[in-house]
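Entry:
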Amino acid sequence: MEEAEAQQQAPTSATAPSSQPTAASVPSPKRRGLPFRRSHPYYIGFVGGLGVIICYYLAESLMAVTTELILILIALLIAVGLNPLVEKLTARGMRRGFAVLIVAGGGLLLIAAFITAIAQPLATQTSGLIDSMPQRLENLERNRTIANLDQRYNVVGRLQTMFSGADTAQVIAGSILGFGKFLVTSVFETFTVIVLTLYFLSSLPSIRAASLRFVPATRRPRVALLSDGVLERMGGYVSGAATVAALAGLAAFLMLGVLQVQFILPLALLIALTDLIPLVGATIGALVVTIIVFLDSPAKALAAALFFVVYQQFENFIIYPRVMSRSVDVPPMVAVIAALIGAALLGVVGALLAIPLAAGAIYLFREVVQPRQDAT
């Protein structure tokens, strides 16, 4: 009897749920209709169009702040280049704040002393160089070859008109207003770079520690070692490039002094500044200085040209490898490609920034990618 009753109740219990509506089929009073399907064409088109618009305005915003981003990157590279000096002082037990103050104060005092020492002679010699250009060009007319070319193309006459009829500020900046704007912008950008450099130099360990928070805890020691290696390579390139440029400027100053050229200070400074530009900087500086010396004496210009050719070979094969081998090892082909890409993207500044970034990328490739490739 019990088994029969159980059999009669079983179909009733089995069919009971099918006769009652489920909770999913009963619409909630707070929910109207079915949810919107993400595969619907309208949804895909709307979200896709919205994403394109956002990406477009983000790209425009990024292009609008390109100058500021470049200044930040320059300040960061300078801070990375000065960081080894700060690390040496902190290794001796000095607090990082005092170490940064000493390094930054010493650097600013050195720059101030350099500017004070050369400001007056540089301004006088530069003004004298521009003022003497018409007379120098007039002296070239006595040369037969130059006179024949001048009769055909009137090159000397045009240059004389340009230098004698234009104001010095207009020659340099194009107009007084343009020169003032250029001066104010340069001062503001220089001040910005100095402030950012001090901030990065003092906060570099905290910035590094905060960046490591984005890495899983199991990988942080490895990433910390890699980041130290990248910063060391980039800082080594910055300090090494400054050393090579200073040596080039000093060598040019001594050579021009031996040749008894009148305007040796601005010409030597031009050599040092252009030597910072990868690939073509040293050649451009040497060519400009040789042309200026040629206006004074063709014989001195020939001697200067020979000196620059010999010194550039000495710098490329002896000075540069010895200075850079201690800190950074960038293959010449990689340096050329990086400088070309950087120059195409951001001009001279991009060429200056490309090689230290390439040095960091090469270090990561050698430490991360290459061992994995060799293990497979």
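Residues 332-375 form the longest helix (44 residues).
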